[in-house]
Amino acid sequence: GGGGAGPGEAAVALVVQVHERAEHLRILLDSLRRAPGVEKVLLVLSHDVWSAELNALAASVDFCAVLQIFFPFSLQLYPGEFPGTDPRDCPRDVGQVLSLG
C-alpha cells in the first residue's frame, strides 16, 4: 500500500495474523479504511501461507502504510518436513522412553 505515514512516521503499528481467510481480511481492511487517524498506522500483515488473493488485498491498501511478512517455514511449503510431518520424526504419540531408546 502507498497511503498514509511511512514506517518511520507511524504513530502505532497494528499487527494482524492473516490466515487463509481472504474475506475476513477484506472486512478488516474495509473497517480500517473508515477509522479516524488510520493514516498514522503501520499495518503489518503476518502471513503463514502465500496467496495471490491475500497479496492483492494487501496491495490495495491506500489509507496507511503496509508491511507484509511471511513465516519462512510454512506448512504450505514444507508438508513433508518441519513443520509438516517428517518421516524421520518419532511417531506423534510415542512416549519419552521409546523416543530416546
Automatic annotation (TrEMBL):
Any Pfam family: MGAT2
Gene3D superfamilies attached to this UniProt entry: Spore Coat Polysaccharide Biosynthesis Protein SpsA, Chain A (3.90.550.10)
Catalytic activity from the UniProt record: an N(4)-{beta-D-GlcNAc-(1->2)-alpha-D-Man-(1->3)-[alpha-D-Man-(1->6)]-beta-D-Man-(1->4)-beta-D-GlcNAc-(1->4)-beta-D-GlcNAc}-L-asparaginyl-[protein] + UDP-N-acetyl-alpha-D-glucosamine = N(4)-{beta-D-GlcNAc-(1->2)-alpha-D-Man-(1->3)-[beta-D-GlcNAc-(1->2)-alpha-D-Man-(1->6)]-beta-D-Man-(1->4)-beta-D-GlcNAc-(1->4)-beta-D-GlcNAc}-L-asparaginyl-[protein] + UDP + H(+)
Membrane topology: Single-pass type II membrane protein
Keywords noted in UniProt: Disulfide bond, Glycoprotein, Glycosyltransferase, Golgi apparatus, Manganese, Membrane, Metal-binding, Signal-anchor, Transferase, Transmembrane, Transmembrane helix
GO MF terms held by the record: alpha-1,6-mannosylglycoprotein 2-beta-N-acetylglucosaminyltransferase activity; metal ion binding
Entry superkingdom: Eukaryota
Cofactor(s) listed in the protein's UniProt record: Mn(2+)
One record GO biological process: protein N-linked glycosylation
Positions that bind substrate: 17-21, 48
Pathway: Protein modification; protein glycosylation
Subcellular locations according to the entry: Golgi apparatus membrane
A GO CC term assigned to this protein in UniProt: Golgi membrane
Its EC number(s): 2.4.1.143
Annotated family: Belongs to the glycosyltransferase 16 (GT16) protein family.
Protein name, UniProt field: Alpha-1,6-mannosyl-glycoprotein 2-beta-N-acetylglucosaminyltransferase
Naturally occurring in which organism (per UniProt): Micrurus surinamensis
